[in-house]
Amino acid sequence: MSGAGDAVPVLQVRDLQAHFRTHYFGVNREVRAVDGVTFEVNRNEIYGLAGESSSGKTTLVKTIAGLLKPPLEMVGGSARFSFLPGWDAIGRAPPEVVRAIRWRHLSYIMQGSMNVLNPLRRVRYSFRDFAWRHLGGSKVEFDARVVAHMERVKLDPSVLDAYPHELSGGMRQRVTIALATICKPDFIIADEPTTALDVVVQKDVLGMIRAIQCEMGSSILFITHDMGVHAALTDRLGIMYAGRLVEDGETPEIFSRPLHPYTRHLIASLPRIGDTEQREGLDGTPPNLAAPPPGCRFHPRCPLAMPVCTTIVPAMVETLPGHRVACHAVNPGMAT
Ligand SMILES: Nc1ncnc2c1ncn2[C@@H]1O[C@H](COP(=O)(O)OP(=O)(O)OP(=O)(O)O)[C@@H](O)[C@H]1O
């Protein structure tokens, strides 16, 4: 790991709220997928976001990246990038401002590489479409730069002449990462970038992400539900449950001293070699975010739940240096 960053925030998220608002057959429905999330990502660090399916991870990063489409709306709070002064969220900046920063300062690696690569065009043209206007120079100079970058990510430049379907899943994902990093952006959002890959290719791609991040000194917001990947890759880690952040801190600290009962459960569920014991699951299911439980959203499943948890939302408190947690059992009397 590269260490815990330079303590200079590149992204500051404050009380961010993003809801899906739908209106079907006369019924209004509001899914509070992100509901009051606060954290920051420093320069030169990988900040991981963990949490089970439907906890709001993708909605959170889409809101941060300004990729808002109805029925998703940012309804409150802010998500400020240091390279976009004057705007409290990308989604509130005009399209020309967004175009100028996308790929150059902020890039996004998604789970399905085919979302970025045009299936009808050779890979070389995807590079020209996305990066040429940012990097400038003649076509020959630009192509030489792309070839050098392909070599850096250990891809044979002949890949540039292939169509995406001719490449394996691992190679396609490497191409996507090459696209996302060629402009040396300050900030990369990676949403489950290795989930669809087999473990050997996954390890290789994760090693490549870390190597490029170290070389460029950029920041990465890395989303995966796989705690093993977080342990191996991230510098700091945030745990999401039902649209809220419940704990965050340096990754080794979270793994060695988890404070929130949900984090403890996630870590305890990790398989260990030689372990023959049956692991206990959590009772119940994640809440419906259109009608979440009052108080702490984890209380219906929590082994430590107390009466206060059913009515009062616990505040996210720095309980140990650099280690925040939102739990009444850990921080008695701390409400939002
Ligand atoms: N288009 C939509 N309309 C209404 N609700 C939605 C929509 N898309 C997602 N949601 C809801 O928002 C909540 C958060 O979903 P989100 O995809 O952000 O979670 P996630 O943690 O990224 O899950 P996963 O790991 O499965 O991708 C879920 O309750 C989901 O059902």
TrEMBL record:
Chief location category: membrane
Membrane protein topology class: Peripheral membrane protein
Gene Ontology molecular function terms on file: ATP binding; ATP hydrolysis activity
Keyword ATP-binding attributed: yes
Subcellular location: Cell inner membrane
GO CC annotation: plasma membrane
One matching Pfam family: oligo_HPY
A biological process term (GO) from this entry: peptide transport
Keyword Membrane: no
Keywords, sorted A to Z: ATP-binding, Nucleotide-binding, Transport
Domain ABC transporter span(s) in chain numbering: 11-267
NCBIfam families: oligo_HPY
Family to which the UniProt record says this protein belongs: Belongs to the ABC transporter superfamily.
Record protein name field: Peptide/nickel transport system ATP-binding protein
Species in which this protein is naturally found: Bosea psychrotolerans
